Amino acid sequence: MEHDREPTRAWVLHPDIKSDRDRRPAGFALEEAVSLAAALPEIAVIGSEIVPLQRPQAGLLFGKGKIEELKARIEANEIELVLVDGPVTPIQQRNLEKAWGVKLLDRTGLILEIFSDRAATREGVLQVEMAALSYQRTRLVRAWTHLERQRGGLGFVGGPGETQIEADRRAIDEQLVRLRRQLEKVVKTRDLHRKARAKVPYPIVALVGYTNAGKSTLFNRLTGAEVMAKDMLFATLDPTMRAVVLPGGGPEVILSDTVGFISDLPTELVAAFRATLEEVLAADLIVHVRDISHPETGAQAADVEDILASLGVDKAVPLIELWNKIDRLPEAEAEAMRNAAGRKDGVFATSALTGAGLEPFLAEVARQLDAERHETRLHLPFAEGRKRAWLHDQGVVETEEQGEDGFDLLVRWTDRQEKRFREM
Ligand SMILES: Nc1nc2c(ncn2[C@@H]2O[C@H](COP(=O)(O)OP(=O)(O)OP(=O)(O)O)[C@@H](O)[C@H]2O)c(=O)[nH]1
Ligand SMILES: [Mg+2]
């Protein structure tokens, strides 16, 4: 990060496309796009606007008149970077950059930039690099087809020829193979870590949710950790885990804070973060943290559920929903929310900031984890002392008797604990 440089002056555009059936309310979408831009420290958002459009124009995205109008504003404000909240084809990007004399990023490009700014672990860095390269590769190909066509028609010579583009693609492919190999190595080490953690005697509770919902704030409050919690999109990128004792002498659990989700998450990134989010797949309990004070809270929750499903999260994993930031609502509304949450199973109105509503939530975590447990009788030969020690570590042994050729145990454990045991 270069702090001494002047921030790049940016303008944010949200194309509100009328032909797009399931388009989001433009005001909220623009607000989110501005927050996304603000998540990059080197950008200063000078202005933003909604651009109503009947349908996207093939070569330029916007209509000619609109482009002229925007050009005037861009020049008057000395804008260097235009962020378009939506997909922009490579051809459109090139043409708009030329028309306005700026650099342009689309939504996927911007999210990739943020992720690459945040990635802290080796694994995170590799994943973002791979996502960015895959994105770049598709754009390279399409831009080239366009150039070729144009050159053919006008008879120009020069510019990148086929061999150059082919070489670029090959270079990207080779780089991707290299990255994948490195990633595999890192994942293998992490798998070892996870195996080590599987021996840790506690169930895993994963916090998931839309970006900025309050996951890290809750994580910090419960664990006393200091994970960066900020009014900034994608404050957290790498998953963080900490052991916590649930209050009231409840069981000890491992709490896991994860990367936030966002609508239209670039597919490259979902794929890239699969490995990281496997922590979530391995959880004994999922806590979905929602910002209930956000005007789009319903749509955000639906997005999170879609992403969880696409990650293959097992429907059998119990889930608790938190209606967080209840303190931001006017008292009458907060009261109505608390009542509505109270009528639903596994839903709690909370404030990670003030701590309100957390006690009943934590009691439910303890109860759910306990309800999940079932009893199993095991016979362990003397040679399996390691497994026996593991069971005792997990605190699942109810009774134990020494027989002639080993131990007879009665254990009470969760499905996942049993699965981990069977895999040992
Ligand atoms: N008023 C209020 N603000 C909250 C509450 N929980 C979190 N916040 C604020 O919301 C912002 C985002 O909180 P984070 O904990 O960083 O959110 P996150 O879900 O971890 O976000 P990402 O890491 O970006 O996915 C911060 O400014 C928090 O102080 C709450 O219960 N009430
Ligand atoms: Mg966070």
TrEMBL record:
Keywords (A to Z) from UniProt: Cytoplasm, GTP-binding, Magnesium, Metal-binding, Nucleotide-binding
CDD domains: HflX (cd01878)
Positions with a binding annotation for Mg(2+): S216, T236
Localisation per UniProt entry: Cytoplasm
Pfam families: GTP-bdg_M, GTP-bdg_N, HflX_C, MMR_HSR1
InterPro entries in UniProt: G_HFLX_dom, GTP-bd, GTP-bd_M, GTPase_HflX, GTPase_HflX_N, GTPase_HflX_N_sf, HflX_C, P-loop_NTPase
GO cellular component: cytoplasm
Domain Hflx-type G residue range list: 203-373
HAMAP family the record matches: GTPase_HflX
Family the entry assigns: Belongs to the TRAFAC class OBG-HflX-like GTPase superfamily. HflX GTPase family.
Protein name as it appears in the record: GTPase HflX
Organism annotation: Lutimaribacter pacificus
Gene that specifies this protein: hflX
